[in-house]
Design a protein that fits this description.
Elements (H helix, E strand, L loop, with lengths): L2 H51 L6 H14 L3 H32 L5 H7 L2 H20 L3 H18 L2 H5 L1 H22 L11 H33 L2 H38 L8 H33 L7 H26 L3 H24 L3 H27 L4 H28 L9 H23 L2 H6 L2 H10 L4
Amino acid sequence: MSKKNLFVNIAYLLSSNIFTQGLRVGRGFIVAKFLGPELMGIWAALFVYLLYGENLHLGVYNSLSRDIPIFRGQENNAMIKRYFNNAFTFTVFSSILAFFVLFIISHFTSSSNQIMDKGMKFMPFLIFTQQWIVFFKFSFLARNKMKEISKYQATYSILSFLSAFLIITFGFMGQMFGLLLVDIVYLLLLVLFSGQKYKICRDNAWITMMKSGFPIYLVGLVFVVLMSLNRIIIVKMLGTTALGHFSLAFLVFSFLYFIPESIRIVLYVRMGESYGSAGQDREKLRKFLSVGTKLLSIIMPFVVFAMSVMLMFFVPIVLPKYVVGIKPTILYMCSVLFLSFSVIYSNYLNIISKQTFFLFAQFIAIIIHIGGALLLINNGYGLNGISIACILAYFIYYLLMHIVSMLLLREKWRSIFKTFFLSLLPMFFMLALYILLQANIQEPLFLISFRNVTLIMLVSFLYGLFAFFSCYFNSEIRILFDMDKYINRFKAKGRI
C-alpha cells in the first residue's frame, strides 16, 4: 500500500467514523432523554450481552484480519480463499448454536426486573444478526476495503439514528425492536451488495485459524472484560439508576475512542503487510509505533478538552437529569487518553504474536481497576471513584504496553522512559491550559459570552501551535506528511 493510499484509507475511515459517531451521539441523547436514568441503566446492563456477543468467534475472525494481510504480502491466494470460506462456514454453525442457547436461557430464566426480562427476549435475535455483521466487518478489514467499511458504517448509523424515534412511541421496547430491525435491514444490505461470495466447506482450516487467532481473540475478550467492569461494579454497588447517570460516560467514550480505533484498524492491515513482505522483521514496525503513538498523543488531549467544554455546556440544557454524571464523565475521559495512546502497541504485539505480554498488562489493569473502584466506592467517592480507578488502571496499562513493546525492539531503559515521558507532554500542556481556563472563565462555567468564547479560542490556538511544532520537530512525522513542502510554499509566497 502506498503512502497516498494509506492516508486515503485513514481519511475515509475517520470521516465515516466522525459521521457515524455524530449520529450515535445524537441517538444516545435521544435515548437518554426519553428513557431517563433508570431505564437507561437497564439498557446499559443489557448491553453487556452485546459486548460479549461480539466475541463468540473464538479467534477465527481475528485470524482473518491478521493472516490474510500476511498471505497477501506473500501472494498466497489459495490460502486467502480457503480462510474466507472456513470463516463463513464457522459463522453459519456458530450463529445458529448461539441463537438456540440464548433463546433457552432468555425464556427459562428470570430476574426481579420485568423490563430486564423483556429485553432479554430480544438478545438471541440480536446476537445472531450481530455474529453475521461482525463476520462481514472482519472480511472487509482483511481485504483492506476501508472505503466499503466507511460506507456501510455510515449506512448503519443512519438506520440506527432513525430507529431511535421508535422510543418516543414505544419506550424501552421501541429501543430493543428498533435495534433488531436495524440489524436485519443492515445485514440484508451486506448480503445483497457486498460483492463477496463464500461457500460452505468441509476442511478443517478453521481449527488452524482458531489456533492462530485465539491469542488475539483472548486479548480482545479480556479487553471487553476491562471495558465492562464499570457496568458490572456500578450495577452491583450503586444500582441501575447510577449506571444510567454514568451512561453519559459510555456515550462519550464511544465518540472519543473512534479516533484511535480508526487509525489502529488502518495501520493494523498495513503493519501486517509490511511484516509479511519483510520476512517478519520486527524492525519494519518501529516507524508505525513511533508515528502512530506520537500523533495520537497530540490529537487526543485536544479532543478530550473540546468534548469536556461541550459536555458542561450542553448536558444541563439538553439532559438536565444527567447533570450528576458530568464530573465522573470528564474524569473518565481523562482515562480514555491512556487507552488511546496504547492502541498502536496492541497492533504490534498482536502481529508479532506476543499476546502473553499483552494479557499480562490487561490483567494488571483489571486488578487495579477492581481494587481501586471497590476501595473508592466504599470510601464515599461514588461514580467519581469509578472514573479515578479507570485513570489509574489505564495509565498502568499504557505504561506496561509501552515498556514491553520497546523492550521487544531492544530499546534501552533510558530511551524507553524518555519516549514515554515525551508522549505525555501534550497531555500535560493541555491540562495546564485547561486549569488556566478554569481559573479565568466566568460563572456559570460555560456561559456563552465574548470573554468565555475568546478564552476557549485562545486555548485552542495555543494548543494548535504546540501540536504543529511537536509534529514539525518529529522527523518521522515531518517526512510522512511531507511538511517541508508546505512550509517552503508558504516561504515562497512570503507568508512566513
